[in-house]
Amino acid sequence: MDDELFNTLPNRLAREIDVPSALFIWLHPGDYREITAGTQAEANLDYNTFEGPDPWLAQGTDDKVGTGVFRLSNYVSPQELEESEMFNEFITKNRLDRYWCLGLLQGTRDGRVATAFHKGKTAGDFTDTELSLINRHVEDLGRLHAIRRELHRASIREIAAADRSLLDDAPIFELDHQGRLLRMNGKAERLFKLHPLLAVDSKRTLRVQGTGQSAFHLTAGKATAARKSEAGAMDLAQTRASDGRIIPRLRLNFLPRTDGGRKVLVIATTEFTDGMQDLFDSPQERILLTPRERDVLHGLIRGLRRDQLGHDLDLAMPTIDLHSANLRRKLGARTIAEAVAIALKLGLI
User: Fold this and answer.
1) What value does the mean pLDDT take over residues 288-308?
2) What CATH number does the domain containing 71 carry?
3) pTM of the model
4) How high is the pLDDT of residue 226?
5) Would you say residue 119 has pLDDT above 60?
6) Please, what is the Cα angle at 242 between 237 and 244, to 5 degrees?
7) DSSP three-state, residue 75
8) Where are the beta strands (DSSP E) in 64-220?
9) Of all residues in the chain, what percent are helix, strand and coil, respectively (each to 5)?
10) Which of these, 70, 67, 116, lies nearest to 96 by C-alpha position?
11) Where would I find the HTH luxR-type domain in this sequence (predicted)?
12) Total domains, the chain
């Protein structure tokens, strides 16, 4: 189950059932989404921007875990798909051959993993025969994902600094010049599990999901430059943890280390002295949405525009905007797409 083998599996599955696209989408600790392996890989990084409005992931609910393969068209009409931001700004933009979709949700010790198969628009929806073929592989896929997740878990635990050589006053990650996570202290491990934007891939590369990805990569690169390293910092906006609690705005400080190779310490701090400990000590928070806020949220997940929402709910546009602003505030999100993603992660739908 090494990286090379794992990364070839979607292509093998796609060839076996004669479809252009197959992918594995993981929900790791911290409940962040990541395409771990998939065909048409050149578009995978761009996908992170569109995971919130993805009508396929919107149907990735707990009640479907362990129930076998299902057609997306049972839940989302072709018209809704074609009107979605996902289709117009991601699939069409990247010239991907994805339209009809089969989904499969399975559970692992640390959460869910989704497997998706896609056909092109002119190929027609998946047949009962094709569903039966894929369902024969469900148990094998479940074992594969469980094994892969345990390997990932073991890899993370190996790099926790048990010898306390990294102080535990603040979360500290130690990276090499390629961004690979060498060590982290106990608070860093806790922050990693809570923060939805912190991710570690199968190569143990630490990164920040979403719009902060480029800044993180650039700042870490400067701190580990071969000729002249340079300290730096970047901010992560306030957001919601995977269990609902508010994570305050964080500053990631990059401190170069030249002993034993090109390394950098990434130290997370907050504006207030006790802010980090307050985060870890704070209880899980219950988020309460009004019925109208839920109506608006459901419409946004379906990809409806503001005017369509107003028409369907018989509400004026300023009222729609007010409910949208309340959703962003309650979910700790900066954008509606981020609010939808957080709502899905917290199971508020």
Assistant:
1) 85
2) 3.30.450.80
3) 0.52
4) 86
5) yes
6) 80
7) coil
8) 70-71, 100-108, 111-119, 172-176, 181-184, 198-200, 206-208
9) 45, 20, 35
10) 116
11) 282-347
12) 3
